[in-house]
């Protein structure tokens, strides 16, 4: 298949491009810069110049592809409303281009599900709808297009898709521990996050692209529930710093914007995903990645 990938040079996206190329697919990656175009070219992928604010490029990329994988997101934590707006607009543009074609549309989603009191399952719909919701309610919006001939598939990624070179949430926690000399967890640290190694996550993206029917919710989850205290202890062992609780009212000061999320429970099961697609995670655990130095780069200033 000729697959159009947004976020093709990002953390998950770059590994997805590798996975698709290795499996024999052609890839066209959305590229914001000449450097991104060059990085895709070196891998043997084609590029299309544009970004999330260029609906024309998004439409062209989807229109001329056999499948779409949408992984780009602004992740503007200082202005989440803008990220939500851009995500909803991008999903709508891509889905409109695919309408009536029955072509697969795999898009990134998340595992946040307030007040469930249990791990999220694949049968749980997203609680977020409408343009003002997190991610612009994009999961529910995309699934509306399933009735219009789009094979919409939600890839719900664990809050940490970890591995060497990751600059996501775990990297920020490591950086905070370096900065403060304390590996913290919020309160008692009893809330839990799911986790998955990036290589396992992108293999699931490919399997979904190739085989999942419309309306599928894929749970990219290897470890169902790693307590935030366990995460803090793994970071503390790696950095050889003490592990201490951080009061909820001090979380943002200690962790930065991540303090708003680190106390949340974002755990999920992937039992249905595993059974349906024969997906068995094989990568290292989060604790193993931390112990092996996968986050040695986090919080270390680069050359000036």
How do you describe this structure in short?
This protein has helices at 11-22, 34-43, 55-63, 80-98, 138-144, 169-180, 198-211, 228-239, 251-255, 271-277, 286-291, and strands spanning 2-6, 26-31, 46-49, 67-70, 104-109, 151-157, 160-162, 183-186, 192-197, 216-220, 223-227, 243-246. The protein is of the alpha/beta class and 304 residues long.
Sequence-ordered SSE layout with sheet pairings:
Layout: E1 2-6, H1 11-22, E2 26-31, H2 34-43, E3 46-49, H3 55-63, E4 67-70, H4 80-98, E5 104-109, H5 138-144, E6 151-157, E7 160-162, H6 169-180, E8 183-186, E9 192-197, H7 198-211, E10 216-220, E11 223-227, H8 228-239, E12 243-246, H9 251-255, H10 271-277, H11 286-291
Parallel strand pairs: 1-2, 1-4, 2-3, 4-5, 5-6, 6-10, 7-9, 8-12
Antiparallel strand pairs: 9-11
Helix pairs in contact: 1-7, 3-4, 6-8
InterPro entries: Epimerase_deHydtase (IPR001509), NAD(P)-bd_dom_sf (IPR036291), NAD(P)-dependent_oxidoreduct (IPR051783)
Organism: Actinoplanes xinjiangensis
Protein name: Nucleoside-diphosphate-sugar epimerase
